[in-house]
Amino acid sequence: MHPFRNLPIGRKLTLITVLISGVALLVACVAFAIYEQSVFRRTMARDYRIMADMFDDNVAAGLAFNDEAAMARVLMTLSADGRILAAGVYSKTGALAAHFQRADLKADFAFPKAQDTSQTFRSDRLETFKNIPLAGEDIGIVYLATDLDELHALVWRYVIVVVALLVGCSLVALLLATRLQTIISGPIVELAKTAALVATGRNYSVRAVKQGDDEVGRLVDGFNSMLGQIEARDADLQAAHSTLEKRVEARTSELRSAKEAAEVANKAKSVFLANMSHELRTPLNAILGFSNLMHADAAASADQRRTLDIINRSGENLLSLINSVLDMAKIESGRTNIQSTPFDVRAMMRDIANLMRQRAETKGLQLGLDLPADLPVTVQADESKLRQVVLNLVGNAIKFTAQGGVTLRLRARPADRSERLWLTVEVEDTGEGIAAEDQQRIFEPFVQVGPGSEQKGTGLGLTLTRQFVQLMGGVIRVESAPGQGSKFHVELPVGRAETAALASVAGRETGVARLAPGQAEYRILIVEDNVENWMLLRQLLEQAGFLVRVAGNGADSIEVFQSWRPHFIWMDWRMPVMDGLEATRCIRSLAGGREVKIAAFSASVFKGERDQVLASGADDFVSKPIQFESIYDCLARHLGVRFISEVVGLPAAAEPDEPLRPEALAALPPELRGELADSLVSLDATRIGATIRRVTKLDPALGGALAHHADRLEYTAILKALKTGTSHP
Fold it and tell me: How much is the pTM?
């Protein structure tokens, strides 16, 4: 079928015409031949039925008297008819009484069994049976077998005639179709040629010639109309093309200018953030460093160390706030990552509660902390981001609550894997609440809703909170209604951590270290323009047992290096005259510059600058504010020195002489038990302390146990013990 589809349309029309004509003629001839054959068979059957009727009269007497000779003579008369193959006479019992067969018939011809009057066409003969009546009774049967040669000859004549007619008519139809198909195919062929001419030459001014008003004529009209439209559009395109290059050039120039402006703005933003990071974190380095040194001083009293702890925590909180602003920029550029470390989650929550309690009390609010006794102490997560999340939520709750209080809760539940936990942080307040339509908007940047929206703030707190939670793999949601307060839920996956891991991390947080005896003497050069910073670092290193010199900028460091040959250089990255990058490259190019170890320290938090530092030839990078343990770890890695820790801190919180016993609480006077319960529910620290002092007068051991739990804000544990003691007297 596929080759026929590819034929020219004229040939297709010719072949279809000839085929239709031939099929029609063939059907007519076959129908006529079948009709003629049917007529011939009926005529032949009628003739031999008549012959059988005449024959049975002649053999009736011979059959009645069983005269075989007479019957044989009658049968022999049938030999005159060349179409008779065989004839026979059957007795009444069906036995063959007499028979005749043509000479050319095979000797083994078998006469069929006698049958009643009937006629049957076989493949090669016509068989006729006829009952022989006599005196109203059938006395036998006549049988005639006639060949069909005449019928076969008639069929062959019809076949020859049909073939001749088919050939002749097909030739005539072919001749006529060849001549007449051009009436239909001619316009179509011309249209195809025109279309090919337009396609190859792209000359849309060419038009097809219309030869009639039939469907092909309408097709030509449509084709010419399409060419006209294309020609008009082509002219428009040619006209537009003449000015397109100018427009493209102008647009490209605009985009280039916009791109350059965006790059300049982005670079300015990065420079601004880097400078702000450096300018803000550098003084914090001195504040945190000197407070740690003073804390480690053995002459410092317990009260002084507590004050220093407050200074240190406040400085760390300020540092955390600065980092949040920088994190916003890092999140926008996709450069924020998770730094998972083990930490005491209960201590972190207490620190946050202590830090925020003064703000709450200033507004006349109560700040409660709910820490269940079965809460794990140490977890593995990003402490800085989790701390910022909780600080933001508690700070917002205090900010938007006019009366009542704020409650901070922490819960833990097992995760799918045994080494993981789900931490749930809840911050609930009694503020004005948040309308349903605003509960998603509050997480958008620079958005504040409700009556408290007139208060000062950037509107970035909840945005950063949600981004931090998502970075840590958690979810945050809010439940609130106007006039019913708000409750923020944060669920975070964290790892389980051993308390020993926490101790190894925190062991040198506020302590100093000294070089172990029996080691070589090492010279260390500090290159730093900020006086407070190099004084802090020099004091720390000299106390550890190193020889220390200071250079105020990169140019001075080159001179000191050449004259003093230090083993290790602490290189600040941003300095006047010559920065750390150029100074490092110059030192590396000098004799012995390849052997000295150089560690850069900077207030930058951007990974790009860290990569630049290491690529310039520095061996290590330490972020400001500098932590003592990071200094010691860096020196140990590059110089192979060993330190002896001298951790000096606050005395460990006194453990109670005995645990908090429900039966001891049950022994208290009912009025005192009620006062203790009411003060715990009110979350009023002053009232709780006064009530515990009353208990201490009656039972010093119980008072100590209560004070131990109250100092850790474990009010829930005290309430549970009260309830247990009351229910089990």
Answer: 0.39
At residue 650's C-alpha, the angle toward residues 649 and 656, to 5°, is: 140
Of residues 331, 334, 313, 312, the one with CA closest to residue 323: 331
User: Could you give the CA distance from residue 603 to residue 285 in angstroms, rounded to a whole number?
Assistant: 9
Amino acid at 237: L
Question: What does the pLDDT look like over 535-546, one tens digit per residue?
Answer: 888 988 998 899
The four Cα atoms 117, 122, 125, 127 give a dihedral, to 10 degrees, of: -10
Calculate mean pLDDT across residues 555-572: 94
Percent of the chain with pLDDT over 70: 82
Spatial separation of the C-alpha atoms in residues 323 and 273, rounded to whole Å: 11
Give phi and psi for 487, each to the nearest 5.
-135, 120
Q: 554, 577 in Cβ contact below 8 A?
A: yes
**First vs last C-alpha separation in the chain:** 103
pLDDT at 5 exceeding the cut of 80: no
Give 125's contacts (C-beta < 8 A, 6+ positions apart): 85, 145, 146, 147, 148
Q: Indicate the range of 99-113, 157-171, 325-339 predicted with least confidence.
A: 325-339
Classify residue 95 by its DSSP letter.
-
CB–CB of 715/663 below 8 Å? no
Give residue 319's pLDDT: 66
Instruction: From 423, 427, 429, select the one nearest 390 (Cα to Cα).
Output: 427
Single-letter code of the amino acid located at 278? H
Instruction: Write the pLDDT tens digit of every residue in 304-328.
Output: 777 777 777 677 666 656 665 666 5
Q: Which helix or strand (DSSP H or E) is residue 418 part of? A: none
Give 241: exposed, middle or buried? Use CB within 10 Å, 0-12, 13-18, 19+.
exposed
Angle ∠(620,621,626) on CA atoms, nearest 5: 125
| Three-class HEC string of 155-210 | HHHHHHHHHHHHHHHHHHHHHHHHHHCHHHHHHHHHHHHHHHHHHHHCCCCCCCCC
pLDDT score at 226: 85
Contact 47, 120 (CB under 8 A): no
Task: Tell me how far apart the alpha carbons of residues 382 and 634 are, in angstroms, rounded to a whole number.
Answer: 22
* Cα gap 360→406, rounded to integer Å: 8
CA angle (431, 434, 435) in 5-degree steps: 145
pLDDT for the residue 556: 93
Q: Is the separation of the CB atoms in 46 and 40 below 8 Å? A: no
Mean pLDDT of 205-220: 78
> Hey, what's the torsion of the CAs at 687, 691, 693, 696, to 10 degrees?
-160
Q: Bridge-partner residues for 508, per DSSP?
A: none
Q: What is the pLDDT confidence band of residue 653, given thresholds at 50, 70 and 90?
A: very low
Q: What is the mean pLDDT of the chain?
A: 79
Q: Amino acid identity, residue 104?
A: D
SS3 category, 715: helix
- The predicted pLDDT at position 555 comes to 92
Give one word for 334, left, alpha or beta, with left for phi > 0 and alpha for psi -120 to 50: left
